[in-house]
Each structure stands twice: as structure tokens, then as C-alpha cells.
# Entry
Amino acid sequence: MENILEIENLTVSFDGFKALNNLNFRMNAGELRVVIGPNGAGKTTFLDVITGKVQPTSGCVLFKGRNLQNIPEFKIARLGIGRKFQTPRVYLNLTVRENLDLVCNRNKNVFSTLFSRPKSAERRTVSGLIETVGLEAKVDLSASLLSHGEKQRLEIGMLVAQSPDLLLVDEPAAGLTDEETENVGALLLALAESHSIIAIEHDMEFVRQIANNQVTVLHQGSVLCEGTMDEVQNDEQVIEVYLGEAPPTPGE
# Structure
């Protein structure tokens, strides 16, 4: 299977501090990869470099074989990389349907979305997205009235409406109730059937729910280890990094 994303010897320095340090990473097309790591591990910078928000000091990011060096953020988005930030970015004064109409509308124009009738193909797309994100009962509600978890699902739907090949999702379970966490996890697993997804996460229960393949652990700007959730949880280096204590030596 081909790699959709390859990161080679990537270093990002901010005034001498290496947020990423000679990081190497590969991911297959169609994969749902969870990336974990303690605070300061470089997880947000990792996403910033992929999307073009930050330029590498050295090394490169290849998306479907294309080097993303010096390509502006908006052009990287058009190439097929979509990013969801930690805080939901939805239009609070618009309804759920209007939020999705706005993204599906090719003119990307607020006024044409609100005052013209969407084409039938766009209506079908919006209806499908509403069903996918599980917001059928809230479709005509203002987004400001949605719960935090519903806003997260709406924004993921808005991201999917842009038809990205690679979805980058930053801490989607942050601040959610158990039920909302489960709903967002189920949505990501459903989307993983037709998209490549990188999910950055802290919530280990949520990671267990969605990590059906490889988990990547970042530490001090580098990949510390990769493997299944069970392998990662039982790795002595990972235990030391997360718990701040050295693993016991044999015989202790």
C-alpha cells in the first residue's frame, strides 16, 4: 500500500529550541493513525508543518509523493489536507444545515448560501453529511445551541465536505462527556473507511476506542515508539515518559 504521508528527518527550531527533532514518520493511504505524547512532545508543531503553517528548519514533508516545502497553507488545503483544530470553528449564528451548505457551496459565499437555493446535488451532499455526523434532529438549530460534542461533529462534517484525502484532527475528545466522546470516536471510525486520518489525542480511553492499527508516540520532538495500543502501553520507554519514573530493573 502506498504512503499518503512521508516525513523525513524533520527538524523545526524556534530560537534554538527544537520543537521537532529529526522526526521520521510514514503513514499508509486509508489508515487511521493516532498520535499521542506528553505535553511539549511536538504534536501541534507536527500538524503545523504538515499544513504549511510552520516551515521546517530541515527535512521534508511529502504528501502523495509531493514535497510541501514553501507551499502556502491554502494551497496545501486544496491539495487535499484538511485540519480540525482543538476548539470547534463553526458559524454559531448559522444553523447546522447552513454551516454545511456554506462549505458545500462552490462559491464559498455567505450571501449566496443564505439567499439562494442550493443545487440538488449539494442538497444530497448536505443531507448525507448531516446523517453521517448524526445531527438529523438538530439540523435547523443554530450552531450556538449545540453541545460541545455536537459542535465537534459538525466541524468534522464541514471538514469532510471539502473532500480532503487526509484529515488531521487535533484532540477531538477534549472537554467531551463520555457519551459525546463515544459518538465522536464512532464518527472517526466511520470516516476512516473512506479517508486517511491522523488524530492527536490525550484521552487514553478514546485512543483505545479508535486505535485499530498503529499508534505513534512522540517525545521531545521525535518518534519514541510505534505499535499497537497494547504494545505502546507496555513499552518501558513510554511508561517512563508518561509516568516520569524509570522502569524497574530486573530483580528489583
Q: What stands out?
A: Confidence is low (pLDDT under 50) at residues 107-115, 246-252. The chain is about 35% helix and 25% strand. The two ends are 45 Å apart (CA to CA).
